[in-house]
Write a structure and sequence with these properties.
Blueprint: E1 7-9, H1 14-23, E2 27-30, H2 36-41, E3 49-52, E4 62-65, E5 68-72, H3 77-81, H4 84-89, H5 91-97, H6 103-106, H7 111-117, H8 123-130, E6 134-139, E7 142-147, H9 148-151, E8 152-154, E9 157-158, E10 164-171, E11 179-185, E12 195-203, E13 209-217, E14 224-225, H10 227-235, H11 240-248, H12 263-284
Parallel strand pairs: 1-3, 2-3
Antiparallel strand pairs: 4-5, 5-10, 6-7, 6-10, 8-9, 11-12, 12-13, 13-14
Helix pairs in contact: 10-11, 11-12
């Protein structure tokens, strides 16, 4: 099939894009187009107006500012994949990027497009939740920041108003020497993940576990953080018993149900993936003066 007719707009500035968005009640924004174009072709989306952000200056960058990593919403996934700053400061994000589609799609796909599309199985929304990212949003009423855990309002939907755009994602890296891991299961590499798990951990100078972040993707309607699992892992200092207890928390999630992968299967798979992610993150974790393996 081919898309239904629509008006294409090519703004050059953020303010122009926001004005177009405010004036078009049935508009869709296109970034990399890796999700929207198939939806248009299949007529799953039939907007009256499409606003192309590719000509808007200043929305694609990766830089360090005041101890945070700032990523423009139009930054290509391939740029994240090959960024030395990301590899050094946020290695778990690079590990997740390598599971996003294929290099051909990462050449065009953007981090903002993936996060705003909010597919339950997508890797980048789960990364934002894991990393406690702050989502910088601009709209007719000005600028606001949204914690990543509050950005999703449901599957394939976000808290963005119809006249708002995601412009930047800000992440505070964990200190050098932290442990990290991202794992997922898909039937083939590049396919949508049935489930993913990611882990971040820190140890103190004595080697004791002091901090953990654990997240799941593809299991529930939106990415989830597992606060109880994090607590069990830290309180148990990452022992095998603590790993098992933390991994069991994944079985308590309100998992997605479908004929191919019923909820019980996703829960069981998530528990196994989470255990593997924690185990590998702990193996990488060093003390505050150590280095990542």
């Amino acid at each position: 099939m081919k898309p239904a007719p629509f008006n294409l707009h090519l703004p050059r500035t953020l303010q122009e894009a926001l004005r177009l968005l405010a004036d078009a009640p049935n508009a869709r924004v296109i970034a990399g187009g890796q999700s929207l174009m198939p939806m248009l072709n299949l007529r799953l989306a039939m907007p009256d107006d499409v606003i192309d952000l590719n000509g808007v200056e200043g929305l694609g960058y990766i830089r360090e500012e005041n101890g945070e990593i700032a990523i423009g919403a139009m930054t290509r996934q391939r740029d994240l994949e090959f960024s030395a700053l990301i590899a050094e400061r946020v290695p778990v994000l690079r590990a997740a990027i390598l599971n996003v589609g294929h290099r051909q799609t990462r050449n065009r796909g953007t981090i903002g497009g993936s996060v705003c599309h909010m597919d339950p199985s997508a890797e980048l929304p789960a990364m934002c939740v894991l990393l406690d990212a702050r989502m910088v949003v601009h709209g007719a009423r000005g600028r606001r920041e949204v914690p990543a855990i509050e950005f999703a309002s449901g599957p394939m939907s976000t808290c963005l108003s119809s006249d708002e755009l995601l412009t930047e994602i800000r992440v505070r890296p964990w200190r050098p020497g932290h442990g990290w891991c991202f794992v997922e299961y898909a039937r083939r590499h590049g396919d949508f993940a049935v489930a993913s798990a990611s882990a971040l951990v820190e140890r103190d100078a004595s080697g004791r576990l002091t901090r953990a972040a654990l997240a799941l993707g593809g299991v529930c309607q939106t990415p989830v953080r597992l606060a109880d699992a994090e607590r069990l892992l830290v309180e148990g200092n990452g022992t095998p018993e603590a790993l098992r207890a933390a991994a069991e928390q994944a079985r308590l999630c309100d998992a997605l149900e479908d004929p191919a992968y019923p909820a019980w299967y996703r829960q069981r798979l998530a528990s196994r993936l989470l255990h593997d992610a924690m185990e590998q993150a702990l193996a990488r974790a060093a003390g505050p003066h150590g280095s990542t393996q």
